[in-house]
Design goal:
Radius of gyration: 24 Å
Strand content: 5-15%
Oligomer: single chain
Number of domains: 2
Number of strands: 9
Number of helices: 16
Cofactor: [4Fe-4S] cluster
CATH topology of the largest domain: Endonuclease III, domain 1
Distance between the termini: 56 Å
GO biological process, one term: mismatch repair
Order of helices and strands: HHHHHHHHHHHHEEEEEHHEEEEHH
CATH superfamily of the largest domain: Hypothetical protein, domain 2
Enzyme class: hydrolase
Largest sheet: 5 strands, mixed
InterPro entries: A/G_AdeGlyc_MutY (IPR005760), DNA_glycosylase (IPR011257), HhH-GPD_domain (IPR003265), HhH_base_excis_C (IPR023170), HhH_motif (IPR000445), MIG/MutY (IPR044298), MutY_C (IPR029119), NUDIX_hydrolase-like_dom_sf (IPR015797)
CATH class of the largest domain: Mainly Alpha
Structural class: alpha+beta
Catalytic activity: Hydrolyzes free adenine bases from 7,8-dihydro-8-oxoguanine:adenine mismatched double-stranded DNA, leaving an apurinic site
Helix content: 40-55%
Length: 350
């Protein structure tokens, strides 16, 4: 109990004023937790406000068009979270009459909800004594207790969950869970933690053994894959262009983009125009082709880096597949495309 009391005392004096900490309503807690997965609070907070304003209840979110939800999410990344968010909202609204499951096990059955999110909602909303374990918790526990089991290994996941559960304040799990996450985010930071003023510095094994920079230990990541994208930005009579929706299980499913040709390396114009995929897109129309960016735009995702060239294609045909330039900014697109549009389109189209 000494650990939880020290932690809670620190939290009560240092916690940030965040909107979802002023409620125990599961809709708001669930929304914030989904948004903050792999996202800093500073980045996620504006999106939280936008979603709460647009969709004050789970019914509002459930009834929203999918493209609208994706558009509002645009820029937050990891778009599968947005799709799962929408699917879960529809399930809760239409199958559960708007009531979220009130247990950890029940919450785990929701799409996009894993151990961490279920633990957070169950403890904060329903006071169920289940410990949260996220990146901040891994860091705090591995340092204080000197644990060098890799946090992304099966034994590590079990070990840290068990320890967090053992330390949990069973009488007030909501405060404890929020406190340990906040402590990791603000005090026991990845770089330059405040060890001198840490309430646990007398007990911290990583500080004692000078291993602060080593812990937590993580197994090496998957090798980064390089991909080469060629986007064809059609200019049809200075009024229209062509967009297509991404499908399948790859990145950005459901978002819109310009017609894409993926190649095995960066391609010159004479190489690009010889590809069958290019010829199929042009459909024997007369065209002119111009490279918009001499250097590829490098867009870094967790397991792949995209090297992207934007090609401006001027042609008179293909009108049956066109979208007016005035409508383009209404479509949900990846940040890569959104940044290009902000630079390329005239101000009166934005």
């Amino acid at each position: 109990m000494v650990f939880s009391k020290r932690l809670t005392l620190w939290y009560l004096h240092n916690k940030r004023d965040l909107p979802w900490r002023k409620t125990h309503e599961p809709y708001q807690i669930w929304l914030s937790e989904i948004m903050l997965q792999q996202t800093r609070i500073e980045q996620g907070l504006p999106y939280y406000y936008k979603f709460i304003e647009a969709y004050p209840s789970v019914f509002d979110l459930a009834n929203a068009p999918a493209d609208e939800v994706l558009k509002l999410w645009q820029g937050l990344g990891y778009y599968s979270r947005a799709r799962n968010l929408h699917e879960t909202a529809k399930y809760v609204a239409f199958e559960l009459d708007g009531k979220f499951p009130d247990t950890y096990k029940g919450l785990l059955k929701l799409k996009g909800v894993g151990d961490y999110t279920a633990s957070a909602i169950a403890s904060i909303c329903y006071n169920e004594p289940v410990a949260v374990v996220d990146g901040n918790v891994y860091r705090v526990l591995s340092r204080i207790f000197g644990i060098d089991t890799p946090i992304n290994s099966t034994p590590g996941i079990k070990e840290f969950k068990a320890l967090a559960q053992e330390l949990l304040d069973k009488d007030d799990p909501a405060t404890f869970n929020q406190a340990i996450m906040e402590f990791g985010a603000l005090h026991c930071k990845p770089q330059n933690p405040y060890c001198e003023t840490c309430p646990f510095n007398e007990k911290c094994l990583a500080l004692k053994d000078q291993r602060i920079k080593e812990l937590p230990i993580k197994l090496k990541k998957t090798k980064i894959k390089k991909r080469y994208f060629n986007y064809l930005v059609f200019d049809l009579d200075n009024e229209n262009t062509i967009l297509e929706q991404r499908t399948g299980k790859g990145i950005w499913n459901g978002l819109y983009q310009f017609p894409l040709i993926e190649t095995e390396k960066l391609s010159a114009e004479n190489e690009l125009v010889q590809l069958d995929s290019f010829k199929e897109l042009i459909q024997e129309q007369k065209y002119s082709l111009e490279l918009y960016n001499e250097e590829p735009v490098v867009h870094k995702l967790s397991h792949q880096h995209l090297y992207t060239l934007f090609w401006l294609v001027n042609t008179q045909g293909l009108q049956e597949r066109s979208v007016s330039l005035e409508e383009v900014m209404n479509y949900p697109v990846p940040v890569l495309i959104g940044n290009f549009l902000n630079e390329y389109l005239p101000d009166d189209y934005k």
